[in-house]
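hiii, so i know i said id send this last week but things got crazy w the move. better late than never?? heres the sequnce for the chain we talked about at the cafe, plus the structure i predicted for it. fair warning i was half asleep when i ran it
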Amino acid sequence: MHLTLIGAVQLVIGFLLLMFGTVPGMLAFVLVSALMMGSSAIDLPAIGASSIPPIEFAAVFLTIRVLLPGSINVPALAAALRANILMIIFVAYGIVGAILLPRLYAGQIDVVPMRVRALNRYESMERFTYATQRLLPTSQNLTTAIYLLGTVMVTICAYVALTHKDAWRLLVKTVAVVALIHVVIGIASVAVPGNAVLTFFRNGAYAQIDNSYRGFVRMNGIAPEASAYGGFGFMLFVFLFECWIRDVMPRLTGPCALALGLALGASTSSLAYLGLVSYAVLVFLRSVVFPKTMRVDRLLVLGATTMLFVMVVAAASVWYPQLVAEFGDMITHFTLEKSQSQSSEQRQFWSLIGYRAFLESYGLGIGAGSFRSSSLITAIMGSMGVIGIVCFVSYLLQVFKPLRLSTYVSPADPRAAVGAAASWVCFASMVPAAVGSPTPDPGVLFAVFAGAALALRPAVSRKPQRIQAGPPPGQATMHDAAMV
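okay and structure toks below
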């Protein structure tokens, strides 16, 4: 085990926050650490050249802070355990399964290992695309089990943190700051590719991919690749946009959402594009079913922004037609043409591995970390079987609360509004995760927003709250005293 310089800095900050900080402050530390997706805090060469990323290392300090003797908020912790019982069962089965199931089905199923060998190790592209090996217990089972444990602990701790007074304000401000930093380092990765500062942060034991196409450098910040940059940014964008349309710190969340949206549009990340398009469809359908979802002034701002964007693109097409054409060609290459590529064929094959593992294990799963997938859905099915998929889907519905009016219409209570925004992050993030997640672990960032959603919108409200922009006076409806 080797502590990197990044890990050493985190160690100092973590101890300072343990001594002088608060639980919400420690949660903010976790969110800032999430920026370093391509970094390593601790190298673990003894278990297959694995590493602990900064966000997982920060999560350890968050857990310690919540459980620190003398400062444990017992009622909040008990409420967090009750609210997250489905996630606890999901992770418990995942950890036990990661230990037992690969041994139970060892040698009986062909799988794609979590660590895929380099292309030059194979005789042909076809062998590389469909490369498999017999199922065996590996260090990746242990690694994935640890990641799952970290996810559930962050979910519980985030719940506890958000029960503190005004913690929701710190959450919104932290996400806004993290989003702006994400934009800046994304632009820097394109403007000065190979920059020594950015390279320093990309020290993780991952395949650090710097893609370019016909002279254009893809935006990846300090993430391992453009898709990771886009996926992370998309979750932040949804939260900030939802806060803006719900009038939560609009002067902060609105500009930050706009800046991040523009960065994602320029990122050429197919995951980011898929997420943005699917989310736009969801917002449109929500506005049709619930017309009061979007205030008139918000619609005007969106309309004006869209018109300005179209005008800028049109002007650029006139003054720089070749540049616009080449950029459009690059976007086409990484989106539409990608679906017909060898990479897409390989990812479809990886996804099917999870489905086959589900069938051949008779719904038990073959253990978390036993194979590489390209979809969170099939990764959970193949790794954790019926128990895993039922628990996760049920938990997602519990977080999202599709039958709660505040999920669609902004409530008067800003806490509930932030909770609803967090729930939309968890729900909308399932679209890119369904086509881009290699493991059954939904991730620490998902855990932060899930815990926040449950804490800020508990199952039973303390008192009824009247929804903003309700029906006209004198017109009684069943929602006159809707619970937020």
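btw Residues 461-484 have pLDDT under 50 and may be disordered. thought thatd interest u
miss u guys!!
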